[in-house]
Amino acid sequence: MSATHLRGVKTPAGRDPDAIKRKPPVPKHLTPFAAKEWDRVLPMLIRRGLICQADLGFVEAYCVARGLIVEAELRRRQKGEDMAKWLRTQNAAMLTAARLSASLGLDPSSRARLLDKDADEDDGDDPLAVR
Where is this region: Disordered (predicted)? Predict the structure, then answer.
């Protein structure tokens, strides 16, 4: 059952019926930093049953952004590199990774929201809840 709010109908979180069961190989074009993130996050997403085949591009984009954060930090520390350029790159990658991680349930608040199915349905004290 979905809870109705002024902002629309929320679909309850749950396992995707088409969830992948095994971690696919790391895409060959990922940098070593991005590949390390792929190996780190995919097992937990698979355990939660939240990722289907169609979501892998989204996970890949997150891993690319996370890999770019690390690469930008290493480049920024090298002498002779344009520090401002790498700071801008790193900042953009951090913003992208934050947005994608929230959608994938990789940050604490989105993880709690995805894993706590009953949290969205308890509108007892919410004066804006539609009844």
Answer: 1-28
Task: Give the model confidence (pLDDT) of 75-125 as tens digits.
Answer: 888 877 788 888 899 999 999 999 998 888 888 787 777 666 544 445 555
pLDDT for res 46 = 92
- Domain spans in the chain, listed from the N-terminal domain onward: 29-115
53, 17 Cβ separation under 8 angstroms:
no
Tokens 């997150």 belong to residue = 62
- How many C-alpha atoms does 39 have within 13 Å on its Cβ side? 9
DSSP string, 14-42: ---TTB--SPPPPPTTS-HHHHHHHHHHH
Contacts of 126 (CB under 8 A, 6+ apart): none
